[in-house]
Amino acid sequence: MARIDRPRIAQLVHLSGAQRGQTRRIWGVTSLAADVDGEITAVAGDSRTDETFAVILPDDEGWRLEVAPTAKVWVNGVRVRHRNLRDGDLLELGETGVLVRFRPRAAATPYKSVREAISDCVDTARLGGRGAIDRVGVLVRGTPYEMATQVAPAARVVAALVVVAVLGSMTALWVQNNRLEAQLADQLARIDDISGLLDSSETDAFTADDFEEVRNELDFRIEDTLSRIEALESRATARGRVITDASQAVVFVQGAYGFLDPASGRALRVGRAGPAGPLTVDGDGPPLELRYTGTGFVLEDGIHIVTNRHVAQPWESDQNAARLVDQGFIPVMQRLVGYLPDRPEPFALTARRVHDEADAAVLVCDEVLVGIVGLRLTEADIALGDEIVVLGYPTGLRALLARAEPDFVEELFSDGPVGFWDLAQHLARGGYMAPLATRGIVGQATAGAVVYDAETTHGGSGGPVLALDGSVIAVNAAILPEFGGSNIGVPIDLVKELLINESADIEPVDAGAPQ
């Protein structure tokens, strides 16, 4: 194809990375390469090196993108080797997910239109910002600069008025978003209050009335619209690919445990006065069953599942259970199962190893999970400011049920309450077993803990904390509500100790039939 000798002008608008918000003009043939920090540099001419991602060059049809054989480049979410570029195309360069917008320009009109300038500012905030506050800050800082430098001088006065109107609208949306988040946080707090036995066990049966208040207070149509928009945006980013790939290996853990009397070997039972009645080893009431949920994730071998120690041995972190242990009662796991997305049936789990000091444990499943691509543990160092993704099942069955279709919920409860174990089975068979994803940044990293600000709550314990290359850097362990909502994860190096330390093995306890 014939090349055009006369240089042409185009613009590359950086929407993420350290250069986000900047507009770079290129003339004629331009090579795109990565610097030592992973940021994109543009070099005039077709000077291809090992670091070159792609070359942008003009031809008879406009502009053309040619990708280096070993490079990974996506255009509008589709990986390409070569492509004719159009105005507004979104280029994702490399695994780092650096995003740039391509805009061709005529030599006589090198300026952006007001619409293009505002669109670039909004996209920079939406795709490059970390959290609502950061997005608003990016928009507030970047819009005046964009209008002052990138649009035609005659349009800048009009643009100033447009900016005021846009910022006013964005402020209103931000306030509304905070109100919705406050409502959701309040609802999660209400959900916490529903939890069952002795303030620590999951409820035995669920009814439609348990969730009526949730539906009355939250506008699910707005929530669904926002989630769909977020899903569309994430498809064009490295983050979206990490979530999609890793979700299939995230396990919903469902367990129950009780206690045995060491002298008689009999099970501790609940008196007939009700589920919160007196506990005894001599009565004929049902055995005490403390139910709970958590999260884990499958490793590459398809057998081992990593989670928290307090998920593998929940009696150690529950004050009520700890009192029984102090009285000499022996905790025993009655049932421990796991569910995976797109798999309708549960699989049995057994605690294999726990860490002596850290909140980490390794479980094994009784069957090889064929077809599951497990998660790999990172070999890289953790750096402050790194973006991370946390996957898990916060609030357990309630969140899963709240995300199900109304028709499914109505049919599920048409015959009355549904038990703790049956509800999970129905959700899995209905295709509603899927983890939630939140993102954040690393605020602190030591040998003993990784601190980050991704939002989660109880039930998400044991989930993977992922880097943007898909590797696991930590195991989600605890929340710190008194410290700005920060969360603590167990560094993956401590999990690696479990995988090679045979001395930490747990002797599995067979609950057997209650006596």
Describe this entry's structure for a reader.
The chain has 2 domains: 9-170, Sandwich (Tumour Suppressor Smad4); 202-504, Thrombin, subunit H (Beta Barrel). Helices cover 29% and strands 29% of the residues. The protein is built from 12 helices and 27 strands. It has helices spanning 114-128, 132-149, 156-194, 212-217, 220-234, 238-247, 309-312, 319-326, 397-402, 406-412, 420-429, 492-500, and strands spanning 9-14, 23-27, 30-34, 40-44, 52-59, 62-67, 73-75, 78-79, 82-85, 90-93, 98-105, 205-206, 250-260, 269-270, 279-280, 290-298, 304-307, 330-339, 347-354, 361-365, 387-392, 418-419, 436-445, 450-452, 464-466, 472-480, 486-491. The longest helix has 39 residues, at 156-194.
- The number of distinct helices, counting runs of at least 4 residues, comes to 12
Low-confidence stretches: 187-200, 213-226, 231-236, 502-515
What is the annotated CATH architecture of the largest domain?
Beta Barrel
Form type? elongated
Number of domains: 2
**CATH topology heading of the largest domain:** Thrombin, subunit H
Average pLDDT level: 77
CATH class descriptor name of the largest domain: Mainly Beta
Question: What is the first-to-last residue Cα distance?
Answer: 84 Å
Strand neighbour order, sheet with most strands: 2-1-11-10-7-8
In total, the number of strands is: 27
Q: Radius of gyration in whole Å, from Cα?
A: 27 Å
Portion of residues within helices: 25-40%
Query: Main beta sheet: strand number and arrangement?
Result: 6 strands, antiparallel
